[in-house]
Write a structure and sequence with these properties.
Elements: H1 3-14, H2 20-32, H3 34-52, H4 62-72, H5 89-108, H6 111-114, H7 125-136, H8 142-165, H9 167-180
Helix pairs in contact: 1-2, 1-3, 2-3, 5-8
The structure holds zinc ion (ZN).
C-alpha cells in the first residue's frame, strides 16, 4: 500500500467503515510508515476532541428572544426629542418684551397707524420722545430708516423664535449656523 491510498483510508478506518482486508493492509502499512502513523494519531486526536464536545441545544424561543432584543434596543439614529413652547419665566418675559417692542415699533414707525393709538398720537410725551428720536435720525433718508427697521424687526423675530423654541432647538440652531459659517 502506498501512502496516498493509506491517507485516503485513515478516516474510514477510524469510523469503522473498512473491510477486514483493508484494515489489515492499512495497519501493516502504518506499522512500517512513520508519516502515516503520525497522520493517524492526529486524526485520532481530532476525533476524540470532537467526540468530547457537548452540543449546546439552542432554546426553542431563540428567534423570539432575538427579535425582542432587537425591538427593545434603542434606535441608533433616533431623532432628538425637542420640548418646544415651554419657555422658563425669564424667557417668557423676554419674549413678551421683545414682541411688544417689535409691535410697538412697527406701529409707531407708520404715521397712519400711530394716529389710531389712544396715546402717542402727536401731543403727548411718547410722541414727543418719538419725534426726538426721529429727529436724531433726521440725517438718514427714509429708505435707510425702513431698512434699519426691517433689520431690527428681523433680528427681534429671530430672537423671539429662539427664545420660544427651547434649549435643544436653540443649540441645534447655533450648531447649524456655526457649520454654515465660512471657516476662518
Ligand atoms: Zn505511509
Amino acid at each position: 500500500m502506498r501512502c496516498k491510498k493509506a491517507a485516503r483510508l485513515l478516516q474510514l478506518y477510524l469510523d469503522g467503515c473498512l473491510s477486514i482486508q483493508q484494515i489489515r493492509a492499512l495497519e501493516a502499512h502504518v506499522a512500517g510508515c512513520a508519516a502515516c502513523r503520525e497522520e493517524l494519531d492526529l486524526l485520532q486526536e481530532v476525533s476524540c476532541a470532537v467526540h468530547d464536545m457537548k452540543l449546546i441545544a439552542e432554546p426553542e424561543d431563540l428567534h423570539t428572544q432575538i427579535m425582542q432584543r432587537v425591538a427593545m434596543a434603542p434606535a441608533r439614529h433616533e431623532a432628538p426629542r425637542f420640548s418646544p413652547l415651554r419657555p422658563s419665566l425669564p424667557q417668557l418675559l423676554a419674549i413678551i418684551f421683545l414682541a411688544t417692542f417689535a409691535t410697538f415699533g412697527s406701529i409707531v414707525s407708520q404715521p397712519s397707524l400711530r394716529r389710531l393709538l389712544p396715546f402717542a398720537n402727536g401731543h403727548d410725551s411718547i410722541s414727543i420722545a418719538f419725534m426726538h428720536v426721529l429727529h436724531a435720525f433726521g440725517g438718514i433718508d427714509s429708505g435707510t430708516l425702513t431698512l434699519a427697521f426691517w433689520v431690527v424687526g428681523t433680528i427681534l423675530g429671530v430672537c423671539i423664535t429662539l427664545l420660544l423654541a427651547g434649549d435643544e432647538m436653540r443649540s441645534q440652531w447655533f450648531k447649524a449656523m456655526m457649520e454654515r459659517l465660512p471657516v476662518r
